[in-house]
Amino acid sequence: MLMRCGPGCHCPSPSPSNLIPKRVTSKESCQATDGKHRQSQKMIHSLFLINCSGDIFLEKHWKSVVSQSVCDYFFEAQEKAIDVENVPPVISTPHHYLISIYRDKIFFVSVIQTEVPPLFVIEFLHRVADTFQDYFGECSETAIKDNVVIVYELLEEMLDNGFPLATESNILKELIKPPTILRSVVNSITGSSNVGDTLPTGQLSNIPWRRAGVKYTNNEAYFDVIEEIDAIIDKSGSTVFAEIQGVIDSCIKLSGMPDLSLSFMNPRLLDDVSFHPCIRFKRWESERVLSFIPPDGNFRLISYRVSSQNLVAIPVYVKHMISFKENSSSGRFDVTIGPKQNMGKTVEGVVMTVHMPKAVLNMNLTATQGSYTFDPVTKVLTWDVGKITPQKLPNLKGIVNLQSGAPKPEENPSLNIQFKIQQLAISGLKVNRLDMYGEKYKPFKGVKYITKAGKFQM
Amino acid sequence: MSGNGHSYGEQAGEAAPELAQEAAPTTAPSVPAAFGLFSSDTKKNEDLKQMLESSKDSAKLDAMKRIVGMIAKGKNASELFPAVVKNVASKNIEIKKLVYVYLMRYAEEQQDLALLSISTFQRALKDPNQLIRASALRVLSSIRVPIIVPIMMLAIKEASSDLSPYVRKNAAHAIQKLYSLDPEQKEMLIEVIEKLLKDRSTLVAGSVVMAFEEVCPDRIDLIHKNYRKLCNLLVDVEEWGQVVIIHMLTRYARTQFVSPWKTDDDVVEEYNENNFYESDGEQKEKDRNVKKTYTMDPDHRLLLRNTKPLLQSRNAAVVMAVAQLYWHLAPKSEAGIVSKSLVRLLRSNREVQYIVLQNIATMSIQRKGMFEPYLKSFYVRSTDPTMIKTLKLEILTNLANEANISTLLREFQTYVKSQDKQFAAATIQAIGRCATNITEVTDTCLNGLVCLLSNRDETVVAESVVVIKKLLQTQPAHHGEIIKHMAKLLDNITVPVARASILWLIGEYCERVPKIAPDVLRKTAKSFTNEDDLVKLQILNLGAKLYLTNSKQTKLLTQYVLNLGKYDQSYDIRDRTRFIRQLIVPNEKSGALSKYAKKIFLAQKPAPLLESPFKDRDHFQLGTLSHTLNSRATGYLELSDWPDVAPDPAVRNVEVAESAKEWTAILGKTKKEKPTEKFYSESEEEEDESASTGATESESGSESEKEDKEEGSSDESSGSSSSSEESSDSESDSKESTAKKTSGAVKESNAEESKKKAKGISKNRNTSSSSDTESSSSEGSSSDSKSVSDSRSDSDSGKSGSATSSKKEEKTAQDRKTPSKQDVFLLDLDDFYPVTTPVAVPTAAVLSPSLTADLEGLSLSGSSVIDVTTQVFVPTKTHEMLHRMTGKGLSAHYHFSRQPDMFGDHMVPVQVTVTNTTDQKIENIHIGEKKLPLGMRIHEFNPIECLEPGGSVTVSMGIDFCDSTQTASFQLCTKDDHFNVNIQPPVGELLLPVTMSEKDFKKEQGMLTGMNETSATIAVAPQNSTSLVIIEKVVKAANLGVVPSGQDNIHRFAAKTVHSGSLMLVTVELKESSTAQLIINTEKTVIGSVLLRELKPVLSQG
């Protein structure tokens, strides 16, 4: 649970003495303006970043200042929710609406005053978090605090008067250069800045995602076809629900303005596709070819779903025997994982997590392969299996110690499994060819396939 | 990039000193005063101030960074204002930007000092660099200082006509800022918005619509002219703008178009009516003609079509926006396409899932079918957060029906076992709802719930009890056993709600469990003092009910309980006790009420309705904040209901109106001339000439006269028109006959000059149709070339002719009130359908206008405008409907006349020739009982009163085949007999030819690919390889319009289906070695493939 001082006395407020009256006045003034006119209309009014212990460590206002006390409503809702995951994304307060997201242990709480599509705000907040991730390598409290100036500059560029202005990372990187150790050294010596002084040409063109004048000595284009299997498998081992969700992540380092077209051997497999804005929709509709001028650097080209009508090959199977004896303080645990329909590829990176029932005190297990940990607080058993070799199937078995006196858990816990298969797209999707137009050089091209477990549950 | 930084560094270094000098004078006077004000500065701030005053940029930058850090933490840095504001003119971009950040935060608090910075921005507004201009405008408008409102206004006005779209975009943003600062400026700002709305840059579109939504969302009239442009730009606008535009257009469309939903119901209704009252079918038939059948406004369709690709957006907000647009605007049959994309969003973050699931929950209540195929996508995972789980559960419950309930219940069983007890409880509620909604499974569910009563977990048991209680209440007939079972449970259950529910049940049905009930009362009386208030109340209730039904056994017990209640701590219970005692225990004081005690306590209680909590959310627009909160958010804009009658769609015609400005003078008098004169001046003049002089050899002109005549006569008696039809079946025949008639018609028309005036309407039509003769014939049909060349040669005498004509127009002006409408609707297809020739003679050149090709150049919208034309070729083939043997001497044949139908938009015209082969009169031939597949309609021909022996009569009727090749069966009745007959249309007759340009064709074809495309390679007989033959053959086989083609080896044909108006595009591409590729693109894939099959042999055979 969160440790937080009560409303009206949280720590980093500018002047704790006058906080309470201030809160009142802020509300009053809102009332006044509401009555007078639909005045301070705008999409996103303010943004607060709150860490897990309930400290507001950054605030940004795009218009008149909204007191931090508005977050009290958020804290209230947070306390009501049992865990962070259950904090409602939209909270209504008397004069504002709070729309929040939870990313990397940070709550991004935005203050809204009027009707706005909530997804609009949510999507934007995620975009902000993505940008932080992109700039600082991680979206953590320390990273944000360390780079507070850049964060501020970014927020300033991303939102004008509460309306998103520049959200493409390529444009932002032209406006504000991401921090690197080298650059900060150089900057401190030469006094130059992180802020670009040129106009981000992308913003003015029809292809806002690409910056101008890109130059590489090695021209490369890599595509990672990553597929995830979402599945629910019942006790008897039959599939209740299985679906393949795929993405193609690209890393494109090509000079100039290349115009690429990527075609598949079997494009009809793709059931539902969402595109990066760079993709020409019409071409896809008519020829099932992805034709685009790519952004520079890393980006997600498409994400797709393979129709659930197709049978999904489940690459692993699990034999499990978890039983608790009636009126005894112990139970047995025996799990074996084996490969199945893996098309000759090895299943690796296998990790199994089990949320054990609350009554479980401890577990005494032996693994034939890999290592396991059991966290007695969260009751999560994690077994890092590694690679599966068909000759010797990994097995984990032993004794479960239960709280004495507690009733036997009535349900066996569900097993969540992660795995990875290199060089295989489980749907069978294959990239046929990549052509480049518009530039003269010959790029180096590469395609990589990975299959992963998505939300894989037994 | 780093090189850039270097060079900049040097530059900045040089610039710095002079900068400081430059900045100093402007701010100097204020500095001392400021120091005086903030004498209590902390030491730290003093230090910052010094850094800001320093001449080194790096020191300034450091100071600014620290200040921004303070702002970010919410610390007060306002006292540094004077020191910071000096640096606003800094040449170092980073310092400058940080100063901007500071200014935006504190300018409101320190208005006087903030004014010092204004001049810098004003200067920057004139900078040659658009980035600097834009950012100056941004900051200037973000400083919320009321004094500068006029400056801002001026700046916005200037920026709105800036050459750079980026600056204009910022101007649009500034509008909102200024408006919130000073709402008085509204009118002026609306002017700017109006101007910016006309902007064609995709950069500006989103921002200006945003401004529109905030400043003047009710000025829907500003959108009209920009509607089509916005629709077409939409795909290229950035994502955030798309969301705003789509939401705005949803609102707009709801005020401008008629509902596409009503008609669905109407059709069914009409159909039913028809079944019931066949006898007075004729009356109904007329009614139906009066009722306008629904055709979607092309602009409405445009919006739907252009938003559809956005479902593929990576941005969840865009997808949701399109989804809600389809939900609120699309015909119910089309809204289904959004479900797939919405389901895709469920892979996204928790927050996105939450919102999307909420919206799906609302949708799934109203239209189950939309999400049924995706049932499994809503299966709950143990790792989902509870709020997501409950929403999924909600949707699953909404989707439950007889077919899937068994799978669902199995799934629910696993949920009940979930460790998340809150969720397990919600599942039990859901099972209860399924049980009430689907009667087939009520018993199964009830049994399942009873099993749960033995569950170890208390919350599960408690919830089950509560739900069972509700279920039993709905059908209390035979559940004594369950109640007994629950009575036993009472010892173990501790959850108050559950105990209370059991007690209530026992009390309510105490007569069904006469032995147990008193015992339960005894037990609970014992534990009364330790019970929860909720339970105590129910014990009192139980006692009272038992007292009334079984007072012998329970009198004392009840008294005891009442006594306990009398001294309870809770006033509520004391109140209740007092009330019950007065009511049930007879004493002197108790009045009239106690007589009714039994009725009061044992009244039949209505069963509770188990309803979805999302039931009432649908009155909020989906995807909005209000919908999520289920309460009206500030600034929520209500979605209006569909108008009953669509407002004039002509308001959206932009380009034509603009380009026709020069004609407005004429417009006043003779509206109809606008389109014609503009685009077809040549033929127009020619027509005028022929009309005014009345004696001309021009074929096309006189032909239209002839139609006038026909129109007139057919109105008087349908018989006369049909009598003139016997002539021609073959196409060449018709040509001849037309020629013959022409001469006659000219004479007649002279004689009937006065009559014609009265028929102004029809003449107007002919004006345009004759103009079309020119365009369409030049486009492809060789048969008409003669008339073209004629008219060309005549057109020299243009000017004088038109002068005479306009005089004449004046005369007839008053007759034209109705037709004037027709001319305005340049792009409205509907008005061109009823070309007024009810005649059956397959005239060769009845062509309605195709302004499209010419309009295209002007139309920025790029929406392809497609007009229906009539066909030049008419199939000669007649089909037998009734053989004379079976018809007892009456025989009937039919053929498809390919006339644009007068019966209504969706009717395929059919001509029926009835022949009497007997030697007696046949009287009263009419259509009797009809057996039509669902949705199909027939417009009957007028009954033939009498048919002489050996005579034959041709009549025309209309059939709406609903775009299917299903047979229309009906009875052909005579006075004393009736025969069952069928009409089955070849697929080629379910089409209406359209004219379009090659470019439009390609564009439309581009949109109809993938699933919508069918193709085949065929062998072409050598004699068929010339283009003339191909066109002739294809057009003969199917009612297609010829599209002019730039390439010799490609032939294109276009049509739309009669009923639904879906485009049908046929391409024949000749390849080497006498093969050809036949491609058909259409949304109606079934018809498309049938057509493909039928066209194949046409070209391959000789």
Automatic annotation (TrEMBL), chain A:
<dbReference type="InterPro" id="IPR050431">
    <property type="entry name" value="Adaptor_comp_med_subunit"/>
</dbReference>
<keyword id="KW-0472">Membrane</keyword>
<dbReference type="GO" id="GO:0030131">
    <property type="term" value="C:clathrin adaptor complex"/>
</dbReference>
<dbReference type="Pfam" id="PF00928">
    <property type="entry name" value="Adap_comp_sub"/>
</dbReference>
<feature type="domain" description="MHD">
    <location>
        <begin position="218"/>
        <end position="458"/>
    </location>
</feature>
<keyword id="KW-0813">Transport</keyword>
<keyword id="KW-0968">Cytoplasmic vesicle</keyword>
<comment type="similarity">
    <text>Belongs to the adaptor complexes medium subunit family.</text>
</comment>
<dbReference type="GO" id="GO:0016192">
    <property type="term" value="P:vesicle-mediated transport"/>
</dbReference>
<dbReference type="InterPro" id="IPR018240">
    <property type="entry name" value="Clathrin_mu_CS"/>
</dbReference>
<keyword id="KW-0653">Protein transport</keyword>
<dbReference type="GO" id="GO:0006886">
    <property type="term" value="P:intracellular protein transport"/>
</dbReference>
<comment type="function">
    <text>Part of the AP-3 complex, an adaptor-related complex which is not clathrin-associated. The complex is associated with the Golgi region as well as more peripheral structures. It facilitates the budding of vesicles from the Golgi membrane and may be directly involved in trafficking to lysosomes.</text>
</comment>
<protein>
    <recommendedName>
        <fullName>AP-3 complex subunit mu-1</fullName>
    </recommendedName>
</protein>
<dbReference type="GO" id="GO:0030659">
    <property type="term" value="C:cytoplasmic vesicle membrane"/>
</dbReference>
<keyword id="KW-0333">Golgi apparatus</keyword>
<dbReference type="InterPro" id="IPR036168">
    <property type="entry name" value="AP2_Mu_C_sf"/>
</dbReference>
<dbReference type="Pfam" id="PF01217">
    <property type="entry name" value="Clat_adaptor_s"/>
</dbReference>
<dbReference type="GO" id="GO:0005794">
    <property type="term" value="C:Golgi apparatus"/>
</dbReference>
<dbReference type="InterPro" id="IPR022775">
    <property type="entry name" value="AP_mu_sigma_su"/>
</dbReference>
<dbReference type="InterPro" id="IPR011012">
    <property type="entry name" value="Longin-like_dom_sf"/>
</dbReference>
<dbReference type="InterPro" id="IPR028565">
    <property type="entry name" value="MHD"/>
</dbReference>
<dbReference type="InterPro" id="IPR001392">
    <property type="entry name" value="Clathrin_mu"/>
</dbReference>
